[in-house]
Design brief:
CATH topology of chain B: ABC transporter involved in vitamin B12 uptake, BtuC
CATH class of chain B: Mainly Alpha
Oligomer: heterodimer
CATH architecture of chain B: Orthogonal Bundle
Largest sheet of chain B: 2 strands, antiparallel
Strand content of chain A: 25-35%
Strand order of the largest sheet of chain B: 1-2
CATH superfamily of chain A: P-loop containing nucleotide triphosphate hydrolases
Radius of gyration of chain A: 18 Å
Largest interface: A-B, 38 and 36 residues
Largest sheet of chain A: 6 strands, mixed
Distance between the termini of chain B: 12 Å
Number of strands of chain A: 12
Shape of chain B: globular
Radius of gyration of chain B: 20 Å
Chain lengths: 256, 334
C-alpha cells in the first residue's frame, strides 16, 4: 500500500532550544528523498517524528491523512519501517533472527509462517546478507550490521522506508549497492526517505533533496537545485563545485 | 555453525529435552536422602515410604522447581527489558524489599499476620512496597524508561539493604540468627496450601510472559527498535517489570533471596540455544527449576547438617557456567 506523509508546521524543542521549527513538507508519492544538513540540523528528530518514535511539540505529522500518533502501532509498522543508525546488542541474536524481527507486525501464531520466511529470504538476498544469516549479530562489522538492519526493514514489507544514514559505515561498493537498492524500492512504489551526509550519493540517486539547517527547511527540490553551489554554502558553510565526470555525470567537489 | 532458526521441530526438540530433564530430576531427587524410599511402595501408599515421598520430599522438590523456574524466567525478562546482561530478579530491589519486610517481622517479634506466617506476609508487603516506589520514582510524567527504572531500582535496593543492616544491628542474638538464616535463602518444607498459592501466581504469570516472547526479542534489542516494529515499549516495559517482580516477590517471600539462579541459568541457556525468547523463556523455567532442585538436594544431603541452598547454587553453578563460557561451543543439534 502506498504511503503519504504530510508535516504541517512541525516544531520540536529540547529545554527551550528549538530543534525543529515550522517544518512543513509533503511526501505525496513514491520516490527517493534524501535529507541533508549539518549536524544538529534536526534530521534525525524529523525522521523520529515521522516514524512515530516521538511526538512533535507543535504542528502535526500525518501518515495517509491520519496523525502518526493516532495509528495503532502494529498497523503503522506494516506501512512504515524505520532503520536506526546503529544498534548495540547485548545478547546473541543471529542476523537471521534480527531480520525475522521485521515480521513482528504480521505475527499471528507462535511460529513464523512460510510467508515470513519468504520475506526474510527475499530481503536478505536483496541486501547481500544471505551468508551472514547464522552469524551472531555482534560479530558483524558496522557495514554488515547496517545491511542486516536494512534487510529487517525490507522484510517488514512497508510502503515507506525511513533510514537514518543507511550508508554511514559502508564501504564504497556497498554504499552504491544500498542506494541502488533504495532507488529500486522507490521505483517499485515505496516512499524512501534517507538521511545522508554524502552530497554525491544524494545528487546521483535522489529524486528529491530536502535540506535542513537549524531546524528549518532551507531547500526542497530536485538534486541539481537543492544541491547547487549556493545552497551548499548556505546549508553547510562550505565551498563546493560541480564537476563533469568522464561518463557525463556530475560530481560535487567541496573544500575551502 | 550457529543457532538454527526456530522451527516447530526445533522448539519441540529443545523443550521436550528440557521437560524430560526436569521430570527426571523431579522424580529422582525425592528418593535421595538419609532415609531410603522405595518408589513402588510410595506409589501404593505404604507407610512410611508414601508419607516420606509425598508428605516431605515431594513438596520440597515442587517448591524448588517452582522457585528456580520463576527466578530464571524473571532473570531472562529483566535482562531483556533492561538490556543488561548483569540484571537479575534482584537488581530492581524486589528481593531486598522482601527481605526488609521479613527482617522487620523478625525484629518486631511478630509471628503471624492475617493468618499467614509473618515472614511471608512481611516479605510480600515489602516487595510490593518496593515495586510501587520504584515505578513511581521511575515514571517521568507518563513515560517510564528502562534506564530510570534501573537507576531507581538500584537506589531502592541499596536503601533497603542499609535498613536491613540497621535492623540487624538492633536485633538480639536470637533474632540475629533468624535474620541471617532468612537472608541466606532456604527451600524449607512448606504446607501444601502455600505451595498451591505459589503455583497459582508463578504458573499463570510465567505463561503470560512466554506468550509475549516475540516482543521481548524486540525489547532486548532496543525500545525504538521495538516501537518501529509495531510494539508498545512503554506497556511492555511496565508489564514485563510487573510480571518479573511478581515472580521474584512471590518466590522470595517463601524461600528468602536465592541468588545466582536468575543470573546464570539464562546466560548458560543463551550460550546453548540462543536468545530467541520463544524457546529461551520456557527452557529457562524448566532448567532453572531443575537446577535449583538439584542444588537443594545437594544442600540437604552433602553434609550431616543442611547447607543454605544459595551456597550450593553458586558453588556448583559457578564452575559449570565458567566452563560453558570458556568452551563457547554452540550446540549444533539443539
Amino acid at each position: 500500500m502506498s504511503v503519504q506523509f504530510e508535516l504541517e508546521r512541525v516544531g520540536m524543542r529540547y529545554n527551550g532550544a528549538a530543534v525543529l521549527e515550522g517544518v512543513t513538507l509533503r511526501f505525496p508519492r513514491a520516490e527517493l528523498v534524501t535529507l541533508i544538513g549539518p549536524n544538529g540540523a534536526g534530521k534525525s528528530t524529523m525522521l523520529g517524528i515521522m516514524a512515530g518514535l516521538r511526538r512533535p511539540h507543535e504542528g502535526r505529522c500525518l501518515m495517509n491523512g491520519r496523525s502518526v500518533s493516532a495509528w495503532r502501532r502494529r498497523d503503522f509498522a506494516r506501512l512504515v519501517s524505520f532503520v536506526p543508525q546503529t544498534l548495540r546488542f547485548d545478547f546473541p541474536f543471529t542476523a537471521e533472527q534480527v531480520v525475522l524481527m521485521g515480521r513482528t507486525p504480521y505475527a499471528g501464531g507462535f511460529f513464523d509462517s512460510r510467508e515470513d520466511w519468504l520475506a526474510v529470504h527475499e530481503a536478505m538476498e536483496a541486501t547481500d546478507t544471505r551468508e551472514l544469516a547464522r552469524r551472531d549479530f555482534r560479530s558483524l562489522s558496522g557495514g554488515e550490521r547496517q545491511r542486516v538492519m536494512l534487510a529487517a526493514a525490507l522484510a517488514q514489507k512497508p510502503g515507506a522506508l525511513l533510514l537514518d544514514e543507511p550508508a554511514a559505515f559502508l564501504d564504497l561498493h556497498h554504499q552504491l549497492m544500498v542506494y541502488e537498492l533504495l532507488r529500486r524500492q522507490a521505483r517499485l512504489g515505496l516512499l524512501v526517505i534517507a538521511v545522508t551526509h554524502d552530497v554525491n550519493l544524494a545528487a546521483s540517486y535522489a529524486d528529491r533533496v530536502v535540506a535542513l539547517r537549524a531546524g528549518r527547511v532551507l531547500a526542497d527540490a530536485a538534486p541539481c537545485e537543492a544541491l547547487s553551489v549556493e545552497r551548499i554554502r548556505e546549508v553547510f558553510g562550505v565551498r563546493a563545485e560541480w564537476l563533469q565526470r568522464s561518463g557525463g555525470g556530475a560530481w560535487i567537489a567541496y573544500g575551502n | 555453525m550457529g543457532i538454527e532458526p526456530l522451527t516447530p521441530a526445533r522448539a519441540a526438540r529443545v523443550l521436550l529435552l528440557a521437560a524430560a530433564f526436569a521430570a527426571v530430576v523431579m522424580l529422582l531427587t525425592p528418593l535421595v536422602g538419609p532415609a531410603r524410599i522405595d518408589l513402588w511402595k510410595a506409589w501404593r501408599g505404604e507407610f512410611p515410604d508414601a508419607q516420606m515421598f509425598f508428605g516431605v520430599r515431594w513438596p520440597r522438590t515442587l517448591l524448588a522447581m517452582l522457585s528456580g523456574g520463576a527466578l530464571a524466567l524473571a532473570g531472562v525478562l529483566f535482562q531483556a527489558l533492561l538490556r543488561d546482561p548483569l540484571a537479575s530478579p534482584f537488581t530492581l530491589g524486589v528481593s531486598s524489599g522482601a527481605s526488609l519486610g521479613a527482617v522487620l517481622m523478625i525484629v518486631l517479634g511478630v509471628h503471624s499476620l492475617w493468618g499467614l506466617p509473618a515472614l511471608w506476609a512481611g516479605a510480600a508487603c515489602g516487595a510490593l512496597a518496593v515495586l510501587l516506589i520504584v515505578v513511581s520514582v521511575a515514571a517521568e510524567g507518563r513515560r517510564v524508561s528502562s534506564f530510570t527504572l534501573l537507576l531507581a531500582g538500584v537506589a531502592i535496593n541499596s536503601i533497603a539493604s542499609s535498613l536491613i543492616m540497621l535492623l540487624h544491628n538492633l536485633a538480639t542474638v536470637g533474632q540475629s540468627f533468624a535474620i541471617v538464616h532468612w537472608l541466606m535463602g532456604n527451600i524449607d518444607p512448606v504446607p501444601a496450601g502455600t505451595l498451591a498459592g505459589l503455583a497459582l501466581i508463578v504458573l499463570p504469570v510465567s505463561l503470560a510472559a512466554c506468550a509475549y516472547a516475540r516482543h521481548w526479542n524486540l525489547m532486548a534489542v532496543g525500545e525504538e527498535w521495538a516501537a518501529a516494529r509495531g510494539a508498545s515499549p512503554q506497556r511492555l516495559l511496565l508489564g514485563g517489570y510487573l510480571a518479573g517482580s511478581l515472580l521474584a516477590a512471590a518466590v522470595t517471600a517463601v524461600t528468602g533471596p536465592i541468588g545466582f539462579v536468575g543470573l546464570v541459568v539464562p546466560h548458560a541457556l543463551r550460550l546453548v540455544i540462543g536468545s530467541d525468547h520463544r524457546v529461551l523463556l520456557p527452557a529457562s523455567f524448566l532448567a532453572g527449576g531443575a537446577f535449583l532442585t538439584l542444588c537443594d538436594t545437594a544442600a540437604r544431603t552433602m553434609l550431616s547438617v543442611e547447607l543454605p541452598v544459595s551456597v550450593v547454587t553458586a558453588l556448583v553453578g559457578g564452575p559449570v557456567f565458567i566452563f560453558l563460557l570458556r568452551s563457547r561451543r554452540r550446540s549444533l543439534w539443539l
